[in-house]
Amino acid sequence: MRPVPTDLPTVQPIASTAWYAVRTRSRHEATARGHIAGRGIEAFFPTMPKWSRWKDRKKRVDWPLFPGYGFARFSREHVRQVVTCPGVVGIVSVEGEPVPVPASEIEAVRTLVESDLRFDSCPFLTEGMRVEVTHGALKGVRGRLVRKGAHARLVLSVDLIGQGVTLDVDAADVKGI
Length: 177
Hints:
The chain is α+β, with helices and mostly antiparallel strands. The chain folds into two domains: about 20-115, Alpha-Beta Plaits (2-Layer Sandwich), CATH 3.30.70.940; about 130-175, Roll (SH3 type barrels), CATH 2.30.30. About 15% of the residues lie in helices and about 40% in strands. The protein is built from three helices and 14 strands. The strands form four sheets. Strands 1, 2, 5, 6 and 9 form a five-stranded antiparallel β-sheet that branches. A five-stranded antiparallel β-sheet has the order 13-12-11-10-14, with no helix packed on it. It starts with 17 loop residues before the first strand and ends with a strand.
């Protein structure tokens, strides 16, 4: 048996409560938030105002800033209470262990959401990534993202003949594939 090294750095004990990212069922963020908060656990599911269009009207609604995700602050002993809430799929984990989200990141998002600044969520896309258009006349069309920003530039190509076309699309209307 090998001796245990004595010069190892000391590990800080895990705080009694930490923020964790909670995965939700599609469009169940508000349900999950309500049930988590109803169990006495602090929940933060940031939203942003967005205009929704129907055939007969437009309405301003609060839309999830991170669709399918929210945050909850709890101790590890309360994991089961969170994952059994209606609308919750699970807690973001690595190798089966829930991973805490740094409190500074939660506070940065909270500060932004509570401010009067204009903001929009952006999917984590990188230039050169293959993407698919999710809304509008080009729904379902796939291409390569060549510029990010409020108006992303998309290249649709015919690889066999080495030709393509470029167009600007709303960044919110594309997702990575």
